[in-house]
């Protein structure tokens, strides 16, 4: 028993030592844990266009451990428990270069926000691996619609323009103008970098579609807004091309010789060398046309360069020269509604013009993590001469004929520049932006105008009398303007690491301009003696001062970005008439709001809203109370009491794409409402010959607005090869104007709908569409109510490559034109074409095109201004055969000598 007691005591001693040791270890561990200060590190990962990258892998590496995270939909990441103030951040994502950076932060800070991590594109090469995956054609983000080029059929020798024509919501017209959901798109970038001149038209016809991996249509607020995060105003549509791996540099260009049976011939050459740090381009063309309807003699030269002075600073420069000669014949038919009756005016204009212009520009831009700078200066000089012979035959309420022979010469030099600087401060929580701009331009115009007016009896149509007026008009103008803006933004405290950022901003801007105009009119009598007519001359100076004060709020969350603000714009116009001693004072105070919202409802489904207001001061020519008698049938006198007009615009857009269903929907609503609009007031007066002539003044009115909707619905079938789409727009407009001091109005309805089916295979493709447009305008003037124009069109096109190096194509369209007063016919337009290539490298190409085989072509345009409808018809030779011989150079990447057809391209 004693022995067992001793053993129990010894056991208790051993257990006590273990307990004490365990307590000591826990105490040291706890002390160590409490002695280490833990803090949060948050950041964001974007591409070079500031678009967030989802799913990027992030590593935070300290001396003791490695923490891991991935970016969310908005590109944000966070590490909530970091115990060392010195660490490495490593970021990587598929298709981008690996990022590695060392950081040291204040250990007393509980939360640290890192500067945005920008990942650059990197080529990924796979040897002897073929992966066949159904490509997702569209990816929709908050402010970007991204198209996957792999989902579309790109055939050999297709250009970016051909690829754009396949994309839903994108329209490319015959002149190369590109619209995205009804908005014109002019700027282009490649891999997020400025590309040569950044002009979309210049390069979408040159760049081969084979190098493109993705096309991104971006709502762009400008480079400074991307840097500061302060996005205000209405965004512009920008196209960014993402190239395939390894094809982000190269040499491309072509030399073309074209000849057509319409006696039209041209030569063109352009070349471009493209590297990451340097871009050099040049171009030249010469063309002549000489036929019954037009005579053209056009020449142009241009060159541009873009290079890096250092890692963060780019320099650009460019020069262009044009020398054009043009002879043309244009017909116009105008109906003008008036309470006293309708005036019908048929005009024929024969113009012979020559123009010469050259332009030079330089630019500097760059950005670091803390600073942004952009500066540019440009200058140009142009000289123009135009001889015109026009006839006007007025019938209806006024019966007159006017024959005018005019010669006009003018030159207009100008120079302008700007500089913008922005800086981020206080760990990117504050920013300051400063800008300055200036401009100067002048003009000298000398006109010799000879008018013969014939007056007819309104009942018998018998010539009553005629009048001859010969005038020599000299006009000298000069304009000078300077301005500047300063903006300060301060971020608000973040609620949590995934809430994004928010800024409140304040800005002040001022612009000053001074304009001079000296016009003298000399009239010759029947004996050839000349004398100055004071009533037809003017000498004035105007000064315009405008200020703008803005207050705004910007926020960018995971799925939601929005901004709103208010603007106050006080302005004053001061005019002085030196010949009469009169003066003018016009004060304005304008107010306008703004708001923008982008919401990602879920993947591939977005909603965007924009509301902006802006004011426009009246043009000085509309407020100066001096008679302008350049048009002897319409004397213009300004109204010095005009107020500034304000316009409020709103738009709502919804985009969605179903990856499984292949159905994409793009819808848009828009509206514009104007207040204090400056509209014309046309009255009829008796002249010295007791005949009627028009006199126009200007008044402020409310009630001008238009609302509309556009829509595009597209369904992809057969692995994206077959596309069925329905698109269109509907718009309603309301206009008000004065006639004989009486307020009148007009309303218009415009409808346009297109149903299209297209199939694209490797060896052949076709499309078939039917389109209908309807325009109806109703006028309140003297119960002259309705004017309707309708066009019904059937269009089809096909191309095939049945044998190697040979492609045939055709387009057919039939339209029914209803409601025109100028004869429009119902043309059937048929075009046939053939393309073939030569040489082993296929760099030599021959294209033969036969246009309008049945000679039905004509160019029509209808416009509506106040109480007038104008129809225009330009006559030209539409039936001709054209041949083009072209030598192309397309060398992209470091290894390949030229592009070769890939898996989704037509090998023929």
UniProtKB/TrEMBL annotation:
Domain (Outer membrane protein beta-barrel): residue spans on this chain:
423-887
Superkingdom of this protein's organism: Bacteria
InterPro entries hit by this protein: CarboxyPept-like_regulatory, OMP_b-brl_3
Q: Which Pfam families match?
A: CarboxypepD_reg, OMP_b-brl_3
Stored Gene3D superfamilies: Carboxypeptidase-like, regulatory domain
Task: Spell out the SUPFAM superfamilies in the cross-references.
Answer: Carboxypeptidase regulatory domain-like, Porins
Q: What is the protein name stated in its UniProt record? A: Outer membrane protein beta-barrel domain-containing protein
Q: Which organism is it from?
A: Pedobacter yonginense
């Amino acid at each position: 028993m004693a022995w067992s007691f001793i053993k129990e005591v010894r056991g208790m001693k051993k257990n006590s030592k273990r307990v004490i040791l365990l307590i000591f270890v826990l105490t040291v561990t706890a002390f160590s844990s409490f002695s280490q200060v833990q803090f949060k590190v948050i950041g964001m990962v974007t591409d070079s266009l500031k678009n967030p990258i989802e799913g990027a892998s992030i590593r935070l590496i300290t001396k003791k451990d490695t923490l891991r995270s991935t970016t969310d939909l908005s590109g944000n990441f966070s590490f909530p428990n970091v115990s060392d103030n010195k660490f490495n951040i490593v970021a990587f994502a598929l298709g981008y270069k690996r990022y590695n950076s060392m950081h040291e932060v204040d250990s007393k800070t509980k939360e640290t926000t890192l500067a945005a991590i920008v990942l650059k594109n990197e080529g990924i090469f796979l040897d002897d691996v073929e992966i066949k995956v159904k490509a997702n054609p569209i990816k929709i983000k908050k402010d970007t619609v991204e198209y996957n080029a792999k989902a579309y059929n790109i055939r050999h020798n297709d250009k970016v323009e051909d690829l754009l024509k396949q994309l839903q919501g994108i329209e490319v017209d015959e002149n190369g103008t590109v619209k995205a959901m009804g908005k014109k798109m002019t700027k282009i970038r490649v891999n997020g970098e400025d590309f040569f001149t950044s002009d979309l038209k210049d390069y979408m016809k040159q760049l081969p579609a084979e190098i493109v991996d993705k096309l991104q249509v971006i709502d762009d607020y400008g480079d400074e807004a991307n840097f500061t995060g302060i996005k205000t105003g209405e965004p512009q549509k920008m196209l960014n091309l993402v190239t395939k791996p390894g094809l982000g540099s190269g040499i491309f260009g072509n030399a073309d010789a074209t000849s057509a049976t319409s006696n039209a011939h041209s030569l063109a050459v352009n070349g471009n060398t493209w590297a990451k740090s340097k871009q050099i381009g040049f171009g030249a063309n010469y063309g002549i046309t000489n036929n019954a309807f037009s005579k053209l003699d056009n020449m142009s030269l241009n060159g541009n360069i873009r290079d890096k002075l250092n890692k963060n600073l780019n320099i650009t420069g460019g020069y262009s020269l044009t020398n054009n000669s043009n002879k043309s014949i244009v017909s116009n038919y105008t109906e003008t509604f008036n309470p006293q009756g309708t005036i019908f005016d048929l005009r024929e204009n024969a113009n012979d013009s020559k123009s010469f212009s050259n332009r030079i520009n330089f630019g500097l831009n760059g950005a670091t993590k803390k600073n942004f700078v952009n500066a540019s200066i440009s200058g140009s000089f142009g000289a123009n001469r135009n001889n015109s012979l026009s006839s006007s035959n007025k019938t209806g309420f006024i019966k007159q004929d006017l024959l005018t022979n005019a010669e006009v010469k003018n030159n207009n030099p100008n120079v302008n520049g700007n500089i913008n600087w922005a800086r981020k401060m206080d760990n990117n929580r504050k920013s300051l932006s400063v800008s300055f701009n200036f401009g100067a331009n002048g003009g000298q115009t000398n006109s010799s105008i000879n008018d013969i007016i014939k007056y007819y009896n309104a009942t018998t149509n018998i010539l009553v009398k005629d009048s001859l007026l010969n005038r020599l008009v000299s006009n000298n103008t000069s304009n000078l303007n300077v301005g500047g803006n300063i903006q300060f933004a301060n971020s608000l405290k973040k609620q949590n690491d995934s809430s994004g950022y928010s800024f409140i901003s304040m800005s002040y801007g001022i612009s000053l301009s001074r304009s001079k105009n000296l016009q003298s009119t000399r009239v010759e009598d029947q004996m050839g003696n000349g004398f100055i007519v004071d009533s037809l001359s003017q000498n004035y100076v105007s000064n315009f001062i405008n200020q703008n004060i803005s207050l705004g709020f910007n926020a960018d969350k995971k799925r939601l970005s929005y901004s709103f603000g208010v603007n106050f714009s006080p302005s004053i116009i001061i005019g002085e008439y030196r010949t009469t001693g009169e003066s003018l004072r016009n004060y304005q105070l304008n107010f306008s709001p703004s708001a923008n919202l982008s919401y990602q409802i879920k993947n591939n489904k977005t909603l965007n809203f924009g509301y902006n207001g802006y004011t426009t001061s009246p043009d000085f020519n509309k407020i100066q109370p001096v008679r302008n008698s350049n048009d002897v049938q319409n004397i213009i006198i300004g109204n010095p009491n005009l107020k500034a007009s304000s316009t409020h615009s709103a738009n709502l857009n919804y985009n969605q794409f179903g990856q499984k269903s292949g159905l994409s929907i793009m819808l848009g609503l828009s509206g514009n409402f104007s207040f204090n609009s400056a509209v014309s007031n046309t009255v009829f007066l008796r002249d010295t010959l007791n005949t009627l002539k028009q006199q126009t003044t200007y008044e402020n009115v409310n009630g001008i607005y238009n609302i509309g909707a556009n829509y595009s619905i597209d369904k992809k079938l057969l692995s994206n090869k077959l596309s069925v789409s329905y698109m269109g727009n509907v718009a309603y407009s309301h206009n008000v104007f004065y006639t004989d001091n009486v307020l009148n109005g007009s309303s218009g309805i415009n409808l346009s709908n297109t149903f299209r089916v297209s199939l694209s295979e490797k060896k052949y493709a076709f499309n078939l569409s039917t389109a209908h447009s309807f325009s109806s305008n109703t006028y309140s003037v003297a119960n002259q109510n309705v004017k309707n124009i309708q066009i019904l069109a059937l269009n089809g096109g096909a191309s095939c490559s049945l044998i190697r190096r040979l492609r045939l194509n055709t387009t057919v369209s039939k339209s029914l034109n209803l409601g025109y007063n100028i004869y429009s016919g119902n043309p059937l337009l048929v075009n046939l074409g053939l393309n073939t290539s030569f040489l082993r490298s296929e760099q030599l190409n021959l294209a033969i095109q036969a246009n309008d085989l049945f000679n039905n072509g004509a160019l029509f345009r209808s416009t509506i201004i106040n109480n007038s409808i104008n129809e225009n018809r330009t006559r030209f030779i539409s039936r001709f055969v054209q041949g083009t011989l072209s030598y192309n150079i397309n060398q992209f990447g470091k290894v390949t000598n030229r592009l070769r057809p890939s898996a989704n391209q037509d090998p023929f």
